[in-house]
Design brief:
Blueprint: E1 5-13, E2 17-21, H1 41-50, E3 59-63, E4 68-71, E5 75-83, E6 87-88, E7 91-92, E8 98-101, E9 106-108, E10 114-122, E11 158-162, E12 185-191, H2 200-208, E13 211-217, E14 221-225, E15 239-240, E16 245-247, E17 255-257, E18 264-265, E19 269-273, H3 275-281, E20 289-294, H4 297-310
Parallel strand pairs: 12-20
Antiparallel strand pairs: 1-4, 1-11, 2-3, 3-10, 4-9, 5-8, 5-10, 6-7, 6-9, 12-19, 13-14, 13-20, 14-17, 15-18, 16-17, 16-19
Length: 312
Amino acid sequence: MSERNLSGFRVSRAGPLALLQDAGRFGVRHLGVTQGGPADLHAWAWANRLAGNAWGSGVLEITVGGLELIAERDLTIALTGADLGIKYNGQAAPRWRTLAITIGDTLTFGSPVNGLRAYLAVAGGFRGDTVLGSAACVVREQLGGFDGQGNSLREGDTLTVNRAEHLPAEQAAPESEQPDYRQTAVLDLLPGAQIAAFTGRSLFDAFNAEWQVDQRADRMGVRLSGPRLQCTIGSLVSEGISLGAVQVPPDGQPIALLNDRQTIGGYPRLGNLTPLAASRLAQCMPGQTVRFRAAGIDSALRRHRQFVQDHK
């Protein structure tokens, strides 16, 4: 093992879905390869920032819980995102702050209390096999992850880390940056190219009604249940699909597409969630309520650029 490639954790119990995610895989969608990367960009970026890592460093995304890790060396870590009943050596683990752990310490992820996805960063960043320029794990496409084959973590796996150039100072994220994922999510939506083809009643309902997160939700997308939206366009030539695109199939129930989405689609689009809105949606449990809020591209772009700049 190289000097920079060190054993960091051993998996003593594997949960249903724990994936290595860097910033994502870009410049390859013309090949039919999707983006991957963190479903919750906000929590992922804060985990790296607290761990003293550069933007794009590999972080472990734990969905739902059920994971147990044993430290194989002294490490500085940060836990952000969902409250999955995380225990550190049997005690409640501090979240949204740096934490120094020692060899033999145990991290246990239980079940969702507040949100769906937790993020674990380690100073230096987790290390995985790069495929098409990224280690982002996409299970469907069998790309990335710790083994390069797109596998979620399994019992007995070893998680390798880069040696940290320096350890971060102890710090915590401001309380204003620690969302309560149980609250109604207000999602900024940029109107899309086909929005004028929806009926006036449908547009009113889209931005004034409450929507419920359906059971059919994963890293590809989230189906929402509510008023039936009607569009005068019967079919479209398939076109490129971006992160956060809100497609409306013939049943009138919108689908917000996330990181592991298909690369093209032919349903009309109500619009596009901003990256941070898509992140917020990714933390919603089935049955939770969300609302759409119309947003302008200039203000949304300024907020996103500021967010990225703050976390680089």
